[in-house]
Amino acid sequence: MAIHAPHYYYTGDAGDDAPPPVPGRTSVVIVSWRVRELLRACLRSIAAHEEMDALEIWVVDNDSGDGSAAMLREQFPWARLVALDTNPGFAAANNVALRRATGDVLLLLNPDTELHDASITRLAAYVRAHGECGVVGPRLLNPDDSLQSAGFGMPTLFQVWYDLVPWPRRFYASRRNGRYASGPDDAPYAVGFPLGAALAVRRDVLDRVGPLDEGYGMYMEEPDLCARVSAAGWETRIVPAAAITHHGGSSTGQVPGRMFLALHAARRRFYARFRSPLWNVAARRLTRAGLVVAAARVWFAFRRGSLDREDCRDAVRVYGAAWQLWGATPPDAGEVGGWKF
């Protein structure tokens, strides 16, 4: 589906005062919130599997309050720590480090990941060697070494509906639902965007399209970035030769109701930026109908005795709040961007 290009590339500081890139250096940016032990494992895996001389490691702590900053200072003095006294959101925290990073390749890495053999080096080498490609992601593995979805297609109206009403189940892993079948380990393939657990972008590409859009409090930052990269003429690919284990949802899972609302706020912002007005009308109606169906399923589960009263009430309240968020009057950028978690 064609991208409806926005009339602007991004919001926030363009980073014009960023230091010049150092050829051959890869800057790794990790944003962390209340995942101290996973962050420790992530940094240990980097040290174990990479040549550290070619890397610059940035860790932005979003006011975790769990001892993460002290642990970093004591055990990983080679990591460049930015300890924030508030949580400005995922995109804004990444941009803090991206503006200071000196690598010619920039890797956004989640703290709930663990690296395998030279995965950062392989991603960086690929995106440096392929000028037509601006963004790359790795093959992702679950903790049991099974494959995890690593790349996705840009949202379609089918996906809008199917996300809330996943029937029939056979479509879940299909291209219709934006999923890509994993190819041979050594064969890179094009995608709409990689999962944000690990995403590498060349510095010249980011300088052209702008940093992460800080209007997103949480979610949709990577499809937004890749949509701008695609509009500027570069491809996005998955490089399966680089493998990373991703635990998934370790920060967002701590506040699931708020994250569900943040996801829908982010989707509405993304659709408004990159899809036509008619597409947005259809997406709004499909989403509101899907939320009603999802709430009804929860209520019937309670009536059958498979869900207790409190869980039913909480779920229905979240679905109701999301339904209101998708009201007829779209929120402006400032309102959507106000979702800070």
List its traits.
Spore Coat Polysaccharide Biosynthesis Protein SpsA, Chain A, 2 domains, ten-stranded mixed β-sheet, 11 helices, disordered N terminus, disordered C terminus
Compact overview of the structure:
The protein has two domains: about 20-250, Spore Coat Polysaccharide Biosynthesis Protein SpsA, Chain A (Alpha-Beta Complex), CATH 3.90.550.10; about 255-335. The protein is about 40% helix and about 20% strand.
Q: Order of helices and strands, N to C? A: EHEHEHEEHEEEHEEEHHEHHHH
- Count of the domains: 2
User: Which percent range fits the helix content?
Assistant: 25-40%
Radius of gyration, in Å, reads: 20 Å
Integer average pLDDT: 89
Indicate the structural class.
Answer: alpha/beta
Number of strands: 12
Shape category: globular
CATH topology of the largest domain: Spore Coat Polysaccharide Biosynthesis Protein SpsA, Chain A
Distance between the termini: 31 Å
Q: Runs with pLDDT <50, length 5+?
A: 1-15, 332-341
State the major sheet: 10 strands, mixed
Do you know the CATH architecture of the largest domain? Alpha-Beta Complex
CATH class of the largest domain: Alpha Beta
What fraction of the residues are assigned to beta strands by DSSP? 15-25%
3D architecture notes:
- Helix 8 packs parallel to helix 10 and helix 9 packs antiparallel against helix 10.
- This protein has two domains: 22-252, Spore Coat Polysaccharide Biosynthesis Protein SpsA, Chain A, CATH 3.90.550; 255-336.
- Helix 1 links the parallel strand 1 and strand 2.
- The strands form two sheets. Strands 1, 2, 3, 4, 5, 6, 7, 9, 11 and 12 form a ten-stranded mixed beta sheet that branches. Strands 8-10 form a two-stranded antiparallel ribbon.
- Residues 1-15 and 332-341 have low confidence and may be disordered.
- The chain contains eleven helices and twelve strands.
- The protein is an alpha/beta fold and 341 residues long.
